[in-house]
Amino acid sequence: MGSWLSKQLEPTSAHFTYLVLSIFLLAYAFFSDFIRNRLHLSEPPLATAVGILFGPRVLGVIDPASWGWSDSITQEATRIVVSFQVFTVGVQLPKAYFSRHWPSVAMMLLPVMTYGWLVTAGFVYAIMKTDWATALIISACLTPTDPVLAAAVLQG
Description:
- The structure is a single chain.
- The protein starts with a helix and ends with a helix.
- It is globular, with a radius of gyration of 19 Å.
- The longest helix is centred in the last third of the chain and has 32 residues, at 97-128.
- The protein has helices at residues 2-9, 13-37, 43-54, 71-92, 97-128, 132-142, 147-155.
- It has 156 residues and is mostly helical.
- It contains seven helices and no strands.
- Helix 4 (71-92) packs parallel to helix 7 (147-155).
């Protein structure tokens, strides 16, 4: 029966990716109040942990390299998504927000975010045994610089 089912469904690694992503998003949506308020975790570190767990290095369920995509396609898709996020956050800001709050924005962007980026890169470098450039890239993803997260902070 198992072979009949697999012949009918013909699952690929992309289908498993859709399944894992959907289950993660549904689980986070159901338990987001508990995760954010009781465990004090945000979505990016959890998504990173799920990606590492199901990725090619641990369980091997998700392996985008086997899909035939090149890095240029992934990079361009990421640019489009991030540009839409930044534009949406910029439109939602009040008109005179930056002129009133520039000292706190400058404090968060320059010393605080740079320090968080470098400390996170140090942990990634030490734990994952990567080179320094890769650790900086991964820490840039983990440091809370996400415009959607920033919009959530602004809106309360």
